[in-house]
Write a structure and sequence with these properties.
alpha+beta, Double Stranded RNA Binding Domain, TTHA1013/TTHA0281-like, HicB family protein, Ribbon_hlx_hlx, single chain, Uncharacterised_HicB, three-stranded antiparallel beta sheet, 2 domains, about 110 residues, 3 strands
Length: about 110
């Protein structure tokens, strides 16, 4: 497993006064550094070490998000008043509620 295939991000942490590197597939891991590129390389290296450890212990390694298949379908429960409001807005626009909600989520 190539740890570089995982989903990474680096953002500024005002609380720590440093950049924090994170990996979506390993939410409990992070790496702090004053240098943005070092925060990125730090989290990539930590994930590589954790993946190697998991493999050596015959543990299941998370699949990178980029390799997962998505159906494009998911169910959302909303309060009845929200449902009514969405249905009304969709009718007024002449579109299906599915199309309306999809457009709102894409914003």
């Amino acid at each position: 497993m190539d740890s570089k295939q995982y989903t990474y991000r680096v953002m500024w942490s005002a609380e720590d006064n440093e950049y924090v590197g994170q990996c979506a597939e390993f939410p409990s891991l992070s790496w702090l550094d004053a240098d943005q590129s070092k925060a990125f390389s730090g989290i990539v290296n930590v994930v590589a070490e954790v993946v190697a450890d998991m493999i050596s212990n015959n543990e299941k390694v998370p699949v990178p998000l980029s390799e997962k298949k998505y159906s494009g379908r998911f169910a959302v429960r909303v309060p009845s008043m929200v449902h009514q409001k969405l249905a009304l807005e969709a009718a007024e626009r002449g579109v299906s509620m599915n199309r309306l909600v999809s457009a709102k989520l894409a914003m």
